[in-house]
Write a structure and sequence with these properties.
- This protein is α+β, with helices and mostly antiparallel strands.
- It folds into 2 domains: about 70 residues, ATP12-like; about 150 residues, Orthogonal Bundle (ATP12-like fold).
- Helix 6 crosses helix 7 and helix 6 packs antiparallel against helix 10.
């Protein structure tokens, strides 16, 4: 049973069913399927419980925006598994053009602030994973050593499909593979990682004052990053 568009709640009981390959979520005894028609099987009990609770919390119309754990699991099954190497390569490219490697060229105060917040993450990934990324001044793309690209590929490819679904959101929301990996490793609290990812935006907000649209965008990305982190901790 996949998620119908604009569907109303049509079931009474939401339960879990043990399957040899994971835990299925059942609605009145019928297993939920992904939009692509695959079996929706959660790899862990905490994640299965969370998805079951998301389905069970739907009162009238089904609202996918209130079901992030379901959506991450669908992404793993429907998108990551059939396109795994393309997604790994995309994240390697993020790492080779990582946000943390590009420092402000014209404002020394901002550049110093970036160095203070971002450099410890680059030092961490070098110490923890033997990945040393070069830092550049300005926004023009720089080249990272081929050895580092290969090291990044090996590191990311070690994640299973479910973990990659969460890491992908962390990376694309933050603009930084380094920050995404730091979140996966619990190197820093997730809200510290969000603040590092949006350092420039928060700097501008502090300098020029509150902007409703900018604040809405920041809140959206913070929610995505928190949800992705929560999903990863359930695996």
């Amino acid at each position: 049973m996949s998620l119908p568009k604009n569907a109303k709640r049509f079931w009474k009981e939401t339960t879990l069913r043990q399957d040899p390959q994971g835990l299925a979520i059942s609605l009145d005894g019928r297993d939920v399927k992904t939009p692509a028609g695959a079996s929706l099987l959660a790899p862990s009990k905490p994640l299965a419980d969370a998805i079951r609770d998301e389905w069970d919390s739907q009162i009238e119309a089904i609202n996918p925006d209130t079901m992030p754990m379901f959506k991450f699991t669908v992404t793993a099954i429907d998108r990551v598994t059939p396109q795994r190497q393309a997604i790994v390569n995309e994240m390697v490219n993020y790492g080779c053009n990582d946000l943390l490697c590009y420092r402000e060229a014209n404002d020394p105060r901002l550049s110093d602030h970036q160095h203070k917040i971002w450099q410890p993450y680059l030092d961490w990934i070098e110490a923890a994973h033997a990945i040393r990324l070069d830092v550049f001044s300005g926004i023009m793309p720089g080249d990272q050593p081929e050895e580092m690209r290969q090291n990044l590929h090996r590191l990311i490819d070690a994640y299973d499909d479910f973990a990659l679904a969460g890491l992908y959101t962390l990376v694309t929301s933050s603009g930084s593979l380094v920050l995404g990996l730091a979140a996966c490793d619990d190197h820093r609290p997730i809200d510290d990682i969000f603040a590092a990812a949006f350092l420039d935006d928060l700097w501008q907000q502090e300098k020029w004052g509150y902007d409703a649209e900018a604040d809405k965008r920041l809140n959206h990305h913070q929610a995505l990053i928190r949800d992705a982190y929560r999903y990863l901790k359930m695996l």
